[in-house]
Amino acid sequence: MISAVAGIDLARFRFGGMRRWRVWKMTGAWAALATTGVGAVATILGIVVGGFLGRRSEDRKWIRDAKAEAFAQFLKEFVRLEIELREAYNVSRADTADWEAYNAALVTVSLVAPREVSAAVEPMNEAIQKMIILGAGPPDHAQYERVHALMSQSYLTFVNAARRSLDRKSKPLESLVGGPPPWHMVRRWLPPSPDGTAPSNRP
Q1: Which are the contacts of 176, defined by CB distance < 8 A and separation ≥ 6?
Q2: What one-character DSSP code corresponds to residue 181?
Q3: Which residue ranges make up each domain of the chain?
Q4: Is the pTM of this model over 0.85?
Q5: Is the pLDDT score of 152 beyond 90?
Q6: What does the H/E/C string look like for 42-63?
């Protein structure tokens, strides 16, 4: 009788131990599966987020490069136009400016420039228009001096606005680097005024 009871207890112990082992095994399997799943999700999220941030970084770089190229091309065409209008004025001839190239550069700037840069273009165009009108009439050095000052200042304003657009930490320039030459260099090549007055000695 004792042996039978002992046998039953032993069987219960074995069965209970087996069941606990199976429960532990299943729990371990689910834990491993959960850990693997979390790791996979984290990996996928990392890929998605990394790809998103990478694309944003590439987009920002593309926009910055496009702006820099547009700004540089516009300044190049503006300077080329200023030189041609100045030389035409000096010898009292019609200009042969490449207006198509200038207008194309202007359109490109309008596509990528922020508001501050677009606003800086307006006085540059105003100076160009005044120079055209000036060149169509008799020499007027006093008026030309005012137009030249507007050209120089608007050029500098645009350059600083463009620099801030490309890099917010960029400090503004206080004087021209390139662009229209200083007035004292321009006036050396001016023809005599109809009234015989000499150009001013403004720097």
Answers
A1: 152, 155, 156, 159, 182
A2: P
A3: 2-189
A4: no
A5: yes
A6: HHHHHHHHHHHHHHHHHHHHHH
